[in-house]
Write a structure and sequence with these properties.
Elements (H helix, E strand, L loop, with lengths): L4 H21 L13 H8 L10 H14 L8 E2 L8 H13 L10 H18 L5 E5 L2 H16 L3 H4 L7 E6 L4 H9 L7 E4 L9 H13 L3 E8 L11 H10 L3 E6 L23 E4 L12 E5 L4 H6 L30 H36 L3 E3 L7 E6 L9 H22 L3 E7 L2 E7 L7 H13 L1
Parallel strand pairs: 1-11, 3-4, 3-5, 5-6, 6-7
Antiparallel strand pairs: 2-8, 7-8, 9-10, 10-12, 11-12
Bound molecules: gamma-amino-butanoic acid.
Length: about 475
């Protein structure tokens, strides 16, 4: 296939039109969130055979149309399913430029703009956390950022592991709330600590780690001959959006010489909000923090950062000094490659840079405050609508609730829970199949529970009322 400049120019002119219509779909609230097909139907509709003979650029445009048609409109105001939502046009432009520049973040030489932009963003985010001379690195998501934090903590207390591996008498254990993200236990598995060395700390009735339980478990582990080395607090748990009491946990970490990590993948963005920032009180006492701008800040996926209090800790842990790539030249200090678990790495910082320039700190603060207000408005609707009840009462952008159909309202206790469980599963499936709303669910207190996430500032009262009405009618 020969590619002429005109072909490329017309491809991207068409693509710009497609992008505009895709974003337009997000303002049509009565249109579907998804044109849902079964996996087999979707395979058929997409036509997945790969041709022996190239089909030219028009084929790419046709694939773009199909991809957009069958993809979930995650920017739609009735997509309430994940910890992200909405769309961010400057961020999308940043993502395009990332693809156009097609480079990798290991060296300043290969990615000069990405390097200085990433460093500037890490500095600003560190300032928000309260790390005076902090540093960090961007990661492909919160899970990998949490893993790098755990490896760094392990290196701090067990530096011999880098070369020799764990010794039988090391016995490292770490602590995390029972409602934390599964990536922490998986990181313990990858780091050689084992999932049994990832000790779950009980939570209170809104899902926050109980510091007294943490202290008791740390002491119990010491008595059992283990070496507690880390506690991971969560700022914004995945299901109810709970914020662990970081300040109280930091006291225990200090007393027992534990590395304190805060998984703020979801809730880190609350640092922008003067009104809600107290939820993260004490975060500046952490040794490391994960913060994903692709969640509450609405930056396109994936955009996640690991922030470290101690400069140099990441390179000490992960650095491999591959001299064919990292040359000892005048710019070597600018190379970010040895801070990361990855070698090839996308320039995810660009889209955050574009987005932050467009919105500013104030724009993010307004966004975060608005999402909290939206969630509270929905909580009030749930409280005041017969048949609905909240399963967690708390300050968060997540709302966990269940519905009991009218003819079952006499039920109590476990019978009521069972009925609500069935209703959640069946009603959710109806809405997902018709594409009217996508709202996720999780098991809370033993029964399936809707988890609505206020993640898109375009979602409004009309959408929230329509959701309750659709749940009732379904
Ligand atoms: N990384 C956790 C995301 C899960 C969710 O969006 O619900």
């Amino acid at each position: 296939m020969t590619e002429t400049l005109t072909d490329v120019a017309s491809l991207f002119a068409e693509a710009a039109g497609l992008a505009a219509s895709a974003l337009d779909r997000n303002s049509n609230r009565s249109g579907p969130v998804v044109h849902r097909l079964s996996p087999l139907e979707l395979q058929e509709s997409l036509g997945l055979e790969l041709p022996a003979k190239g089909q030219g650029m028009d084929a790419a445009l046709e694939l773009a149309r199909k991809t957009l048609h069958y993809s979930v409109a995650t920017g739609h105001p009735r997509f309430l399913n994940q910890l992200f939502g909405g769309h961010d046009a400057p961020g999308i432009l940043g993502e395009w430029i990332c693809a156009l520049t097609n480079t990798s973040m290991y060296t300043y030489e290969a990615a000069p703009v990405g390097t200085v932009v990433e460093l500037a963003l890490l500095k600003r985010m560190s300032e928000y956390v309260g790390f005076e001379c902090g540093e960090g690195v961007f990661a492909p998501g919160g899970s990998i950022a949490n893993l790098m934090a755990m490896l760094t903590a392990r290196h701090h207390y067990f530096p011999h592991v880098k070369h020799d591996g764990l010794r039988p008498d090391d016995q490292p254990v770490m602590f995390v709330s029972a409602e934390a993200h599964y990536s922490i236990a998986r990181s313990a598995m990858v780091a050689g600590i084992g999932t049994s060395g990832c000790i779950e700390v009980p939570t209170d009735d809104v899902g926050r780690m109980l510091p007294a339980e943490l202290e008791a478990l740390v002491e119990e582990a010491i008595r059992a001959g283990k070496r507690p080395f880390m506690v991971a607090a969560t700022a914004g748990t995945t299901v109810p959006g709970a914020f662990d009491p970081v300040d109280a946990i930091a006291d225990i970490a200090k007393q027992h010489d534990l590395w304190l990590h805060v998984d703020g993948s979801y809730g880190g963005s609350v640092l922008f909000s003067a009104k809600h920032r107290q939820l993260l009180k004490g975060i500046e006492r952490a040794d490391s923090v994960t913060w994903n701008p692709h969640k509450m800040m609405g930056v396109p996926l994936s955009c996640a950062a690991l922030l470290m209090k101690q400069p140099g800790a990441l390179v000490a842990t992960l650095g491999m000094n591959a001299d064919y790539l990292f040359h000892a030249d005048a710019e070597a200090d600018w190379d970010l490659g040895d801070r990361s678990l990855q070698c090839g790495r996308r320039v995810d910082a660009l889209k955050l840079w574009f987005s932050w320039q467009a919105l500013g700190d104030e724009g993010y603060e307004q966004r975060v405050d608005h999402l909290f207000e939206l969630a509270e408005e929905f909580r009030e609707m749930v409280r005041s609508t017969p048949g609905f009840r909240l399963i967690r009462e708390q300050e968060s952008t997540n709302v966990c609730f269940r519905y009991l159909p009218e003819e079952q309202r006499e039920l109590k206790g476990q019978a009521r829970d069972r009925c609500e469980h069935e209703a959640t599963l069946r009603i959710r499936a109806i809405m997902a199949n018709e594409g009217s709303f996508l709202v996720n669910y999780a098991t809370l207190d033993g029964a399936a529970t809707f988890r609505l996430v206020a993640s898109n500032p375009q979602t409004n009262s009309e959408d929230l009322r329509a959701l309750l009405a659709r749940i009732q009618s379904a």
